[in-house]
Design goal:
The chain is mostly helical. About 60% of the residues lie in helices and about 0% in strands. Helix 4 packs parallel to helix 7, helix 5 runs antiparallel to helix 6 and helix 6 packs antiparallel against helix 7.
Length: about 200
């Protein structure tokens, strides 16, 4: 390379410094993807590579789960995302439903059904039928009230698609096992987050 070429090259580099651009062309998709993949070091051994991939997946799932349990909307799955679903969860969580006591009651009825006494068994059948009827009636009532509330808050029908069934299913779950966790206690008071020491 001649001295003239070197001087021209240096002059071109110096003149580029004053420009407001980033000073380099935008990389093509292939180049960007290969650069990103190089950032993740993959072991050459296939077993080690699979193990590393499993560890990364496990960490990502744990992070996502922790975010979901903390109530961070960024980690909500599509089923739970959006203002409509948040309104549904708050509507359901602020009231007690018969459905949320259904599972524990069913367990008690199952145990009582094992008692070898005709009077107890007859009583269990009547009580069980009454509870089932109450659950059905309460679920229908919750669905009607929820639908009415959503129509006021979200007039567009497309926004409310599947929201009532989502709320009904949540109403049938035990409160402590609801995911995402409730932001509102039964009665309407906000849930105070537990501070981990």
């Amino acid at each position: 390379m001649s001295n003239d070429e070197t001087v021209d090259e240096i002059g071109a580099n110096d003149s580029g410094k004053g420009e407001s651009g980033k000073g380099r062309p935008t990389p093509k998709r292939k180049e960007a993807e290969s650069a990103r993949k190089q950032g993740i070091t993959v072991p050459k051994d296939p077993k080690a590579a699979r193990r590393a991939a499993r560890d990364r997946d496990r960490e990502a799932r744990a992070k996502s789960r922790a975010g979901l349990m903390a109530g961070d909307p960024a980690y909500f799955p599509r089923r739970d995302a959006g203002p409509v679903k948040a309104a549904v969860r708050d509507f359901i969580d602020r009231r007690r439903t018969v459905g949320e006591f259904f599972v524990p009651f069913a367990f008690v009825v199952l145990l009582l059904g094992l008692v070898n006494n005709p009077t107890v068994q007859t009583t269990v059948v009547y009580v069980w039928t009454s509870v089932l009827l109450l659950v059905v009636l309460d679920t229908i009532l919750v669905g009607i009230l929820l639908g009415r509330s959503l129509r006021k808050e979200f007039p567009a029908k497309s926004d409310r698609k599947g929201a009532v069934s989502y709320g009904v299913l949540r109403a049938l779950q035990l409160r402590r096992f609801r995911i995402p966790p409730p932001r509102i206690k039964a009665g309407g008071k906000p849930v105070t987050p537990k501070i981990k020491k």
